[in-house]
Amino acid sequence: MPAPAEAPAPAAAPPPVDLVNVQIDGVWHKFPKGTRMIEACKQAKKEVPHYCYHPKLSSPGNCRMCLVEMGMPPRPAPGTEPEKDEHGMPKIGWMPRPVIACANTVAEGMGIRTESLLTQECRKGVMEFLLINHPLDCPICDQAGECRLQEFSVEHGKGESRFREDKVKKPKNVDIGPRVRLDDERCIMCSRCIRFTAEIADEPVLGFTERGSFTTLAVHPGKRLEHNYSLNTVDICPVGALTSNDFRFQQRVWFLTETNSVCTGCARGCNMEIGARGDTIYRQTPRENNAVNSTWMCDSGRLDFHFVNSEFRLTDPMVKSGGKHQIANWKTALSNIATALAGKKGDEIAIIASARMTNEELFFVKHLAALLGTTNVDVIPRTGGADNYLRADDLNPNTNGAKLILGIEPGAKLAEITELMGRGRLRAVLALGENLLKVGFAQRDLEKVPFIASLHILANASAELSDVVLPGTAYAEKRGSMINATGRLQRLNKAVKAPGNAHDTWEILRDLIVACGGSNGIHTIEDVFKRLSAEVPALNGLTFSKIGDLGVPVLETSEKIPLLDREKERKAKGIIVG
């Protein structure tokens, strides 16, 4: 008789956290042992100004702006008890000199003063040295409005300068890469950019040359700052030394409205902020999400917004009449599609949707296919984007959503649809979010289809062949949800209005279903997601608002994020805070 199988061992409990008592500005707190002093102060809601420190990078302690007063209980004489304060804690003996908060960790009984006279005088001294050679060109600096030097000089600087010598002149408007420019006179030698290129991007192309007041930031000889993560150096630069060629002199930051959203450049779904004024997007910058992209973002993703502002945007529905497209109203355009589809068998209709569509839009694609009785439904796969950092191999942002909602494997039916099209067996094709001539379909095959309807945001060759053209919305012009490569459900938010008479894509599909004889009753994106979550088990119990700004995991995948894996290792070794 075989021995009974052993029961699985219970999961080991995490080791207990060793907490220490720390006094910050007279108030006692508890923090895990090893916490950086600057992070402890942050948790206690006490701001410690800093420049060189960044939680995702190593701490060189070279700007000295984070100096604080520190103390420890004095060692009692043999046979005596330590002196206690009114809280029953050992009384602190304060050191006569300050310490940097970014590179030191808390210990039992430690005291920290962030607002003492010594601390304030140290900050004023550091700020005075930083401003000695800094140019006073705030009115023309792109960093104005979000410059830490500006902010801290007001809070901690002197009202006037005692410097009477000539400022040191350094290189200005230096081309150091295709997307970044350098103004060395503004650099305060915090070294954030140097550490980012060496520690995160693995291309240490930046460094300091010369000494003292003549120290300058430079690119290594024969090198350029041109990797696909170069614009992160602009984000982390606390002053206007590094600026984006794309955003440079385009807009003042205080005029921009920032909207939380996610990048749709690949399946990673990096969290970002869309900066827009009016209905024009001016920049996209990374937003922190430690489960997706940390605080970084690739250049190709952040710059992939200019098509939203394109002059080639479709702005009105169009119906082909006499071989030419004429602007029509929405009712006419949708009625033409419904009339063309009426009486056709399901196997005579094909729907080419897109894995760039939101879950809510794919929900209506599914119901439209069911209403028309067709199983000729597919989305276009796109691969080949992976790097060893954040970029996913899948270049579609919502492949997991398409698999989950449509129940298909992207690309599995394309060959069959192409064959039916080539044999003249298809009588109607709906191209939803894809330019068919750009994704592998031949014009000679498309010309065999009696009726084609396109839903897109840009004028394109497939739209030219189409009998009806519908203008939809780009990712920044709508609300919706997507599931990224690691199975995380995330939310798009509307940052700008769609141009002209373009409608929200999910509303177009809903109205098309109604025009074809389907039911209505859905009026908001929340209503759509409620219906979606009821039909899809992985989304059961969720609402659109519950997705939140950071998203929620809904699927298990084998996808790994190389940059985050390395970040966890560095955090475990104590190199970074994370």
UniProtKB/TrEMBL annotation:
Domain 4Fe-4S Mo/W bis-MGD-type, residue spans: 256-312
CDD domains: fer2
Domain 4Fe-4S His(Cys)3-ligated-type residue range list: 118-157
Cofactor(s), names only, from the UniProt record: [4Fe-4S] cluster; [2Fe-2S] cluster
Top-rank taxon, per record: Bacteria
GO terms for biological process, alphabetical: ATP synthesis coupled electron transport
Gene Ontology molecular-function annotations: 2 iron, 2 sulfur cluster binding; 4 iron, 4 sulfur cluster binding; metal ion binding; NADH dehydrogenase (ubiquinone) activity; oxidoreductase activity; quinone binding
UniProt-listed SMART domains: Molybdop_Fe4S4, NADH-G_4Fe-4S_3
PROSITE patterns: 4FE4S_HC3 (PS51839), 4FE4S_MOW_BIS_MGD (PS51669), COMPLEX1_75K_1 (PS00641), COMPLEX1_75K_3 (PS00643)
Compartment(s): Membrane
Pfam family, one: Molybdopterin
UniProt keywords, alphabetically: 2Fe-2S, 4Fe-4S, Iron, Iron-sulfur, Membrane, Metal-binding, NAD, Translocase
InterPro entries per UniProt: 2Fe-2S_ferredoxin-like_sf, 2Fe-2S_ferredoxin-type, Mopterin_OxRdtase, Mopterin_OxRdtase_4Fe-4S_dom, NADH_UbQ_OxRdtase_75kDa_su_CS, NADH_UbQ_OxRdtase_ferredoxin, NADH_UbQ_OxRdtase_Gsu_4Fe4S-bd, Prok_molybdopt-oxidoreductase
GO cellular component, one term: membrane
Annotated family: Belongs to the complex I 75 kDa subunit family.
Descriptive protein name: NADH-quinone oxidoreductase subunit G
Naturally occurring in which organism (per UniProt): Prosthecobacter vanneervenii
